[in-house]
Amino acid sequence: MKRLLALAAGLALSTAASAAEKPEKVTIGYLNLVNAQLVTKNLGLVAKHMPDVEIEYIKVGGGGDMLRAIAADQIDFGGLGNPPTAIGVARGLPIQGTMVLNMLDFVEAMVVRTDAGIKSFKDLEGKKIAAPFGSTTHYLLLQALADEGIDPAGMDILDLRPNDIAVAWSRGDLDAAWFWEPNLDKAVKDGGNIFMTSGIMEKRGYPTWDVGVVMNEFAEAYPDYVKKFVAAECEGIDYWINNPAETAKIIAEELELSLDDATRMMRGTEMVPCDKQLTAQYIGTSEARGGFVDTLVATSDFLVSQDRLPEAPSRETFEAFLHPEYLEAAVE
Amino acid sequence: MTRWSVKILDSLWQYLFQRSTLLSALTVAAMFVLWYFVTATGLANKLFLPAPDAVWNAFVKAVTKGYQGNTLQAHVGISLLRILTAFAAAVLVGIPLGIIMGVSINARALLNPVIEFYRPLPPLGLYTLLVMWLGIGEESKFALLFLAGLPGIIIATTQAIWHIDPLYVRAARGLGASKIDLLWNVYLPAAGPTILAGMRISLGFVYTVLVAAEIVAATAGVGWMIWDAAKFLLSDVVIMGLIVLGLTGVALDMTMRAIGSRLMPWLNVVKK
């Protein structure tokens, strides 16, 4: 209600004073995974860019929970993998994409039980495989099987959350699982080896990435604060790239990992500097959107074929969803 | 037409047009009108509350084409199988335990701590442990549903046995009744109505943990369907699943009451 009043007031004054309006509080939903958002949070960079605003961070477990948090209007800023993004845009959630938070390399991978004798995707026939449904890894698993012409009905694909996968793995209930750090490492150390990574799938033409999103209502009321937020995240990404040793300490502290684990997991996540995000390979510019529109179109087409979406949004819808102008302002 | 069928038709007619049935129908109709109104006028966001026809379409699609590899009938069948086996096991274990605890103070003292301790635990917290112990297969799902249903039956049965008028027991003993006679002719008939009430409440508890039970490693079941559809923001499927689940619950409850009134005809005194 408060936000609605602020919006009404903002609209009333929008002719003259809208740029001077500021939010009382900014709520940031962040994904509990290895990326530069942890650096931004740890160093208080958002607060540095908007010193006069109260900032609250909320930890969100995964894409599905993030979608619910957005639908329930509980956050101003959030982050989503490309499958949940395609779902959110297709279902008309009031969000805009602002930036690439991270590219998913071997921080997400498919682990197979070493003694299960799995050498190729064909060997998965009749095996028990877990993935969190609706996530980037579920998408890649089905995509990889489709590419090999293997019917997923020939195996047991189970819907488990990452921590439940770790539990089921240690009991020996699973033959394979495609999920992410920090739990992935537990399965590898407990009789598993990496069979496929999300990074290899990227090279095959299926990049998975987390996109930063902002609620429409917030972006319309406080466009300057979206720029400030993006600038803060860009600073976090630069810090990650320029100070790997310091960053590893921060990641270790934030996720309660050992320094070695944090360093290894960091190498599995690719950070894209903000100016590079404006190139044709990534988000592109206000004039010409980049290749990530193709990724979103491909992801939503795939979800329609899986009967998880009633219909795919048009290419224009995804182009309109991406707003490179905040990134452009932040890079200048 | 025979006299009997006329009588049955007559009582059905009476039932359909008695005031309480009409009032209940009115409530259902009012809810539908309200639902239709808030969606047709755009008061409710379609993403959160889809229109009745969207939910109906989701139902038809699930029945004819299925949802993620299984038809709705298959999802309902699997869930009902899980619910009914767990509930039957809870009844088979709960009623004898309840009788023992109702008859013997020592047995009650011995068993109460366990039941009182796990009863208020949130199912999801308990479930993590069950998965560690029993794995991600049917065993842990069964255990969660069973544990949800058990306390209601035990507590109702214990109470019912405990409150039986001792005069009945003494009179039966005086007439030479054995322990088996006492059980079948005194304890169970006198405690029956309360045990039935406990069973109905306990079936409700089993229903409330169904979605939780089917969250972990299921690929079929109404609870899983609701959970999966929610991840993809398919709210029409979610609402359809909840309605189907609710209706099966009502049907099971009515069946249980019907069986109860056949077994205990003295319950049939209708309060108007």
Task: Describe the model.
- Chain A has 17 helices and eleven strands.
- By secondary structure, chain A is α/β, with parallel strands linked by helices.
- The longest helix of chain A is centred in the last third of the chain and has 20 residues, at 223-242.
- Residues 9-20 of chain A have low confidence and may be disordered.
- With 272 residues, chain B is mainly α.
- Helix content of chain B is 79%, strand content 0%.
- Chain B contains twelve helices and no strands.
- In chain B, helix 3 packs across helix 12.
- Chain B starts with a helix and ends in a 9-residue tail after the last helix.
- The relative contact order of chain B is 0.11.
- The mean pLDDT of chain B is 87.
- Chain A binds chain B through residues 64, 67-68, 71, 87-88, 91-93, 130, 133-134, 153, 156-160, 164, 167-168, 171, 173-174, 303, 307-310, and chain B through 47-48, 67-69, 128, 131-132, 135-137, 216-219, 224, 228, 230-234.
What is shown here, in short?
Chain A is of the alpha/beta class and 332 residues long. Chain A has helices spanning 2-12, 37-43, 45-49, 63-71, 82-90, 136-148, 162-171, 184-189, 198-203, 216-221, 223-242, 244-255, 259-267, 274-277, 292-305, 315-321, 325-331, and strands at 25-31, 54-60, 77-81, 95-104, 108-113, 128-131, 156-159, 176-180, 192-197, 209-215, 269-270. Chain B contains twelve helices and no strands.
